[in-house]
Amino acid sequence: MFLATAKGDVPGFQLKDEQKLYQVAMDFGVEIGDRSVKEIAIDVGHKAVAEFGRQEGEPLFIKRAPLKRQEIWKKLGITPGESTGRSSNSCTGRTWAWIKIIEAS
Questions:
Q1: What are the start-end ranges of the E strands in the chain?
Q2: pLDDT at residue 94, as a whole number
Q3: Is the CB of residue 67 less than 8 Å from the CB of residue 24?
């Protein structure tokens, strides 16, 4: 829906918070420069779609979490969202993450 709205394909819908768009764009590594809001939004939309189902690496949305929370995740050796799009945590070896969370409590 976001990408279609960014392209202007959804009548009656529009992007309203340009500052939030710019922040997400920076978090996603999308160039802002002298580009139009529409161009930036379309690139952010493409990045977000690419993130859904990411199989490897740290998800870009992790950067939106408070720095202190990111440090806790790093200390525990877990990264939320890495198993997005997978059938189950136990099949992917991610069950250990819950054990680390419990141990840290």
A1: none
A2: 54
A3: no
The pTM of this model reads 0.64
pLDDT of residue 57: 75
CB 29 within 8 A of CB 64: no
Q: What is the signed CA dihedral for 99, 81, 65, 97, rounded to 10 degrees?
A: 10
Domain span holding position 82:
65-105
End-to-end CA distance of the chain: 38
| Rounded-to-integer distance, Cα 80 and Cα 100, Å | 13
pLDDT in tens, 69-100: 988 888 888 877 655 444 444 455 555 555 55
The sign of the dihedral angle between the CA atoms of 32, 35, 38, 39 is: negative
Question: Domain total for the chain?
Answer: 2
**Cα–Cα distance measured from residue 55 to residue 85, given in angstroms and rounded to the nearest whole number:** 8
